C-alpha cells in the first residue's frame, strides 16, 4: 500500500531472496497462506484494541470507532432493494483508511513467527519462508511457523482458506525432498505457486511463467488478427 511500491517489487524481492540463497548453495522452503476474505473479516473489536495499544486515543480513536461501527449494506438489483444488513465485521471496501487499518490489524503477525522465518505480504497475499542446507530442518521450522500463524489467526477470528494455501521447496539439488506441511490437520498442496501474477518453479527457471505469458499473448493476438482482417461480415466460402 506504499507509494511507488507495486506487486512487481514484492515478487522481485522474493525471487531475489531465493536466487541469493541458491548462490550460497542453500534451499528455500516457502508456504503461501490465503486469508479468506481478509478485508471483509477484520474483527472490529480486535482492531480497536490494537489502536488503543498503539496509543491512538481521544478524538482520533472515537472518530475511527464511529467510522467502523453501525455500517449497513443492501443490494440493488433491477430496481429492487433488499433490507439493510448490519456489517458486523470488516473494514469498508474501497475506503481510504481501510488499507492502513488492515495493516494495523495484522501488524503483530511477524512477531508470532519463530526466528529464522521471513514473511512477505502485499495486501492479503502472504508468503512465509525459511532457508537451510537440509529440507527436513526447513520443514520443521515452517511447520512451527504455520502453527504459530494459525494460533494468531484463531485469536483474531481470521479464517485461513487451506484449499488455496500451498508450499514449495526451491532447490538446485534433486536429492532434497520437502516433508509435509499441515494447517489444522489438512495437508497443503505442493504445486507451482503463482505469487502476484508470477509463477515460481522450484529452480527459478521461469519456464512455466514464460509459457503462460506466451499462451496468453497468443490468445490476445488471435483476437487482434480477427479484428484486423481485410474482409468483414460472413465468410464468402459459406455463401
Automatic annotation (TrEMBL):
Q: What InterPro entries does the annotation carry?
A: DNA/RNA_pol_sf (IPR043502), Rev_trsase/Diguanyl_cyclase (IPR043128), RT_dom (IPR000477)
- What range does the record give for the signal peptide? none
Q: Name one Pfam family in it.
A: RVT_1
Q: List residues of the Reverse transcriptase domain.
A: 1-200
Q: What name does the UniProt record give this protein?
A: Reverse transcriptase domain-containing protein
Amino acid at each position: 500500500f506504499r507509494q511507488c511500491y507495486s506487486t512487481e517489487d514484492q515478487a522481485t524481492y522474493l525471487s531475489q531472496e531465493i536466487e541469493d540463497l541458491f548462490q550460497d548453495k542453500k534451499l528455500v522452503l516457502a508456504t503461501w497462506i490465503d486469508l479468506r476474505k481478509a478485508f471483509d473479516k477484520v474483527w472490529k473489536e480486535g482492531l480497536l484494541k490494537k489502536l488503543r495499544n498503539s496509543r491512538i486515543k481521544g478524538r482520533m480513536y472515537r472518530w475511527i470507532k464511529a467510522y467502523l461501527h453501525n455500517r449497513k449494506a443492501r443490494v440493488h438489483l433491477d430496481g429492487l432493494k433488499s433490507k439493510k444488513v448490519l456489517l458486523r465485521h470488516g473494514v469498508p471496501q474501497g475506503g481510504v483508511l481501510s488499507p492502513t487499518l488492515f495493516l494495523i490489524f495484522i501488524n503483530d503477525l511477524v512477531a508470532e513467527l519463530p526466528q529464522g522465518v521471513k514473511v512477505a505480504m502485499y495486501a492479503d497475499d502472504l508468503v512465509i519462508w525459511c532457508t537451510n542446507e537440509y529440507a527436513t530442518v526447513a520443514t520443521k521450522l515452517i511447520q512451527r511457523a504455520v502453527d504459530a500463524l494459525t494460533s494468531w489467526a484463531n485469536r483474531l477470528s481470521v479464517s485461513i482458506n487451506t484449499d488455496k494455501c500451498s508450499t514449495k521447496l526451491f532447490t538446485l539439488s534433486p536429492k532434497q525432498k520437502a516433508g509435509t506441511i499441515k494447517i489444522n490437520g489438512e495437508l497443503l498442496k505442493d504445486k507451482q505457486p503463482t505469487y502476484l501474477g508470477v509463477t515460481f518453479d522450484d529452480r527459478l527457471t521461469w519456464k512455466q511463467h514464460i509459457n503462460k505469458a506466451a499462451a496468453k499473448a497468443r490468445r490476445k493476438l488471435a483476437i487482434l488478427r480477427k479484428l484486423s482482417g481485410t474482409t468483414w461480415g460472413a465468410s464468402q466460402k459459406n455463401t
